[in-house]
């Protein structure tokens, strides 16, 4: 491959060599780094070559009759400057070069003769397409979470830019800006959402439309978290007293909430499971135990946080003693497949599905005199239950642990424990549910207002309205 100062004589000879049967070759210009002439049976074209991320990239600039030698060198210099500024080279860029050198006239998007420009997605388009794919393949909650994260204000300046021009350094700056405003976990989560977005854009069937560099975002990460400091400065984890647990049950039953939310709250207090499997539970997960006033809740793998990743396809079965079974039984008689159906569709044109899990966390926040979150209830079950009933950590794990209380490497137990340890679980659940009932009665005895459903409904409404007003103020 000769390296020479390309002149008009060089071009004339190259055009003469561009005949069928003649060998292909390239000529490197010594005056413009990366600029080459490619000579072959189809003709002579200008090409710009550069290295990035350990890979060689080539950009076809156009025929030798389209660009003069001076113009080709000018374009090569512009490309080098753009790469030094950490921008990519796309068909958008090349089209603007044609406009700049008056090879084509400017036209509005959608009317450009060079349809290659239309094949490059903006970040806005990429996010829209990606969220459609997430909605098709992943859980609704994952879709909503990704949509929220990709709406981060720091990303807005990039929305109209072609994704092919967005570099890892650009997005690292976005993540760092989020980290800087003090939400360090949010910054880490944003990076973890941007990485699969770019993996989607790199798909073989999409890369012609996106123009992204393969592997560009693979190492995108947030800055390291700030040092926490001394243990004394750490915010202690909150464990609600049993009187507060009883208060939650009393308020849930007071009539301050609609019947669906009431039943879901009761199931939350009695089982201490995570709010997502409760909200998304379907009627066929619940089974009555014949000849008793009790039942079972068979939580499928889909609801269990790490089960799919481990290849564990077994259900997590929770015994439902009489109080818990009474709470859920009425919800299994309706027309919906969901035990706790939503009052209205989440999106226009869709059918109503399950209630939003946030309904439960919000409900606890609206309760007067209640500080606990849904996760705090799990801590109360573990702390107070072990201390009072002496069922131990293993007993707690049987109820709360998504691994069924079994280490993930214990294949025999995972595969052959067919009775789901019900003989161990039922005494634990009966003890807990009975104890919570006692504390609900104690809470009412201490605070007579917990028997006043009208007063409680007013308190809940006032808290909800205050939340809405605060959100509206923040949005404005």
From TrEMBL:
Keywords: DNA integration, DNA recombination, DNA-binding. The keyword Glycosyltransferase does not apply. The keyword Acetylation does not apply. Residues 1-11 have a biased composition (Polar residues). SUPFAM superfamilies: DNA breaking-rejoining enzymes. GO terms for molecular function: DNA binding. Transmembrane segments: none annotated. It comes from the Bacteria. Pfam families: Arm-DNA-bind_3. GO terms for biological process: DNA integration; DNA recombination. Residues 234-430 form the Tyr recombinase domain. Residues 1-23 are annotated as: Disordered. Belongs to the 'phage' integrase family. This is Integrase. The lineage of its organism: Bacteria, Pseudomonadati, Pseudomonadota, Alphaproteobacteria, Hyphomicrobiales.
